[in-house]
Amino acid sequence: MEFSAKQIAEYLGGVVEGDENAKVGTFAKIEEGVPGAISFLANPQYAHYLYSTESSIVLVNKDFQLEQPVKATLVRVDNAYECIARLLTLYQSTMQKRKGVHPLSFVAESAQLADDVYVGAFAYIGDHVTVGKGSQIYPGAVVEEHAQLGEDCLLYPNVTVYHGCKIGNRVVLHSGCVIGADGFGFAPSANGYEKIPQIGIVTIEDDVEIGANTCVDRSTMGTTIVRKGVKLDNLVQVAHNCEIGENTVMSAQVGVAGSTKIGQWCMFGGQVGIAGHAVIGDRVMSGAQAGIAGSLRKGHVTVQGSPAIDAKNFMRSSVVFKYLPDMQSELNRLKKEVEELKKKL
Question: Within a 10 A sphere around the Cβ of 250, how many other Cβ atoms?
């Protein structure tokens, strides 16, 4: 399927600069452009590729200033990065969904599957499970008893949704993702550690995407909650009784300890660790490998380091850190001189 620059501009509310009849049928990175492809330029570091790319159409921001002529037709938009995402979503929506229940899958008689649901080979759908229309459950996925799955969800191969968990609409769970495993609850005793039964569930609201091999643990009682719009990368751990606020994002290997409440629109880089029972306000940002040891209730801050402190303070401290051995030597020398002066006085 091909689209012209004019059609693309009309869809995105953009302006064509060049041949409005230029057509594309695929996507390419700007540095790997080929004829018939559309690319985008959002990061100024890639601007030099615009003048050599072979892509037929390139999305650029309206305020981008050309330094020399270009071969490609430009479509100027308000936000090139956002617009390429819209086009990719449109492209993906044109791909035909899988349908039907594979004869090698298991679907319990008491399960309720809506229209157009796909269940792949060797998938398991337990008793009293409900699956909303348009949802797709790929081969090897498991949805255990009494779990609820909304509309237009996508469970990739080997996803596991434990019993009783609730999944909203348009949720994407990538391969190996586990929703509702037991929280890490053990009580020390004279004979070792006694397991504390985890009788709660996990609730995942609409438009959430969770990466491969990420785990969201069920609560001891009540529910662990992932609010709508949350995006979790691969290898993220969300412990029992946590609440992740709307539109918060976490990249690889972020770990959130139990009973922590995180606000809306937060961003955590890879390997950020957040202590248990903390309260994190809205729009908290934290860089990779930061250790958040306590609450940041007010929110609207950027922290870094371990234990995490204000990011600007951390950067200043990092500059000083490499000089600490020399500073210690200098301090010891000055202390010795002071002692000698005291003796003379």
Answer: 28
